[in-house]
Amino acid sequence: MSSFVICINNDANPASLILGKVYRVLADAEAEARSMVRIIDEDTSESDGYLYPASMFAPVELPAAAQRVLTATGH
For residue 53, which phi and psi values (nearest 5 degrees)? Predict the structure, then answer.
C-alpha cells in the first residue's frame, strides 16, 4: 500500500472522511492482511489512527514537497 491514499468512498463514514481528500497511511501489517488501512482521519484525537476498509481509498503517489507537508501536519 502507498504511504498516501485518496478517499474514493465515504458513504459509511461521511463525518470522518472527506471524499477526494488525501490521507496518510500509518503502517499496520495486520490491518493490511485484513484488507484494511489505518489512517488519521478528520478526528485527529486518536494518534494511532483508525481502521477503514482499503476499498474506500485509492493509493496515490505525491511529490516529495506534498509528502513533507502532509507528514508534518499529521494528515
Answer: -60, 135
Residue ranges covered by each domain of the chain? 4-73
Spatial separation of the C-alpha atoms in residues 47 and 9, rounded to whole Å? 23
Grid cell in block for residue 26: 500509518
Taking the whole predicted model, whether its pTM rises above 0.85 is answered as: no
How far, in Å, CA of 17 to CA of 52, rounded?
Answer: 10
Taking the C-alpha atoms of residue 67 and residue 9, their distance in angstroms, rounded to an integer, is: 22
Contact call for residues 23 and 7 (beta carbons, < 8 A):
yes
Reading the block at residue 20, the C-alpha cell is: 477526494
On average, the pLDDT of the chain sits at 88
